[in-house]
Design goal:
Length: about 250
Amino acid sequence: MRRPLVAGNWKMHGSRESVRELLQGLLDGVSEGPTEVAVCPTFVHLAQALEACDGSALAVGAQDCSHLQSGACTGDIAPAMLADLGCDWVILGHSERRAFHAESDELISSKLVAAVEAGLKPILCVGETREQREAGDAETVVAGQLRGALQGIEIPANLVVAYEPVWAIGTGLTATPEQAQAMHGFIRGELAAVGVADASQTRLLYGGSVKPGNAAELFAQPDIDGALVGGAALVAADFLAIVAAAA
């Protein structure tokens, strides 16, 4: 039985005060239960979030990390530093990192190895653009991203994969439950093909304009185990409604 996971990706949002208010709202509504819940603030708000969430059911993760544990890498954050701070999770390969920072599959694979080495649990993001989907290349693109990140490495047992169709991120568009399930089922098959020991137990998340109004229908699909939530993660009531739907 795969335990649902709902993780909030706050992206480049937040001030000390807004983070305090958001976390207070979440902590008032999150308790130990069937759904695992995490938030991923900016780097500058990680310490604040970790202090606020200490001893609670709300885990904290980072939005990215370096592929190195130390070195002359100005502006980068080592996975070992995140682990030392107390982070549980790290998001890797998000489409915005791929697009805005030209991150390659090879680099993402190196980050995955380094994150696991530091003791972090990785959320690996994959997804196609609208042009790629309309051209009929969605599965080819996603398979290439999965294989590029996972082939040739020891695949961690705690790997989580988030399918985020780029055309549905922050656009208000959402894959239909049938579209999302089809891709999640495809991803599970690809994981088995690249050597995941028990792909049937790997948690797969959907991300792409997940909201309280569509979460339950998405989570009802057999291969969707939760969500990586963007905009709705910045509103406590919305995020908690998504968490409740996952249960």
